[in-house]
Design a protein that fits this description.
This protein has 242 residues and is of the alpha/beta class. It has one domain: TIM Barrel, CATH 3.20.20.60. Helices cover 44% and strands 17% of the residues. It has eleven helices and eight strands. The protein has helices at 15-21, 40-52, 66-74, 88-98, 120-127, 139-143, 145-148, 161-167, 177-193, 206-214, 225-241; strands spanning 5-10, 28-32, 56-60, 79-82, 131-136, 156-159, 198-201, 219-224. An eight-stranded parallel β-sheet has the order 6-5-4-3-2-1-8-7. β7, α10 (206-214) and β8 (219-224) form a beta-alpha-beta unit. α3 (66-74) packs parallel to α4.
């Protein structure tokens, strides 16, 4: 049985915050380039910090795009998280864009990941261990999940609760019967195919995280840079005003 992999999420360009967060014992840190203003130059700086602190890095790309995935991996990310994977074709493309020929179609570059050309042989081995995570965020993705999980090269999936709830017409209703039955379908199919189940618990409540661990989730993102900051501010302010 694989151990639980616990990470966190970076949503702002704050090198000092990333330096501090990655000095703790998270198994990985994901830099979000889908719902943030972080650009490629800034991403390179953050990846340098994660490497310095020997922290595994993931990047959530903005879309399932061949050029963007290539650039993110050339900057040295250890893994990618690809949003809105709804079909088998989407999953195959994500894997293909992230892997070199003959298995995939990623272009060979001489960027940071390859030591600007001087470490290309070393990177050839590293590239074979890049972790590819696809996000299942719609009822279409759930309905196609059994076939999606048969695509070779996937490390894990990451359920997107908010988008999933919206796709079934129940935005933000995470306790309703329709959402829970959809989530149970995701869990059942994932366990059958023996692919790691993942979820991002944006507000780091230990009880909530433990509930998902008990259900068999092993790729878990806990909080974000901003929710950790916001929760700390709220708790401290409430105590002082009391």
């Amino acid at each position: 049985m694989k151990k639980i992999s616990l990470g966190t999420w970076i949503t702002t360009y704050n090198p000092s915050a990333v330096d501090l967060i990655s000095s703790f014992n998270f198994d990985w840190v994901c830099v979000d380039c889908e719902h943030s203003a972080i650009n490629l130059d800034q991403l390179q700086n953050l990846l340098n910090i994660l490497d310095k602190n020997k922290t595994n890095s993931f990047v959530r790309v903005s879309s399932n795009n061949k050029t963007e995935i290539k650039k993110v991996l050339d900057l040295g990310a250890n893994g990618i998280i690809v949003p809105m994977v709804n079909t088998v074709s989407d999953a195959r493309n994500a894997v293909s864009y992230a892997t070199y020929p003959p298995f995939g179609q990623r272009g060979f570059g001489l960027a940071r990941a390859q030591g600007y050309g001087y470490g290309i042989k070393k990177y050839d081995k590293i590239s074979k261990n890049i972790k590819i995570v696809v996000q299942i965020e719609s009822i279409q993705g759930i309905n196609n999940l059994d076939q999606i999980l048969k695509v070779k090269g996937l490390y894990a999936t990451l359920i997107g609760p908010r988008d999933l709830s919206g796709s079934i017409g129940k935005v933000g209703d995470f306790k309703g019967k329709k959402f829970l039955s959809t989530l149970q379908k995701y869990e059942r199919i994932s366990k059958k195919n023996k692919i790691l189940m993942g979820i991002h618990v944006a507000y780091p409540v230990p009880n909530t995280i433990n509930q998902f661990i008990k259900k068999g989730y092993k790729f878990i993102a806990m909080g974000t840079d901003m929710t950790f900051l916001g929760d700390s501010c709220q708790v401290s302010l409430k105590k002082i005003k009391r």
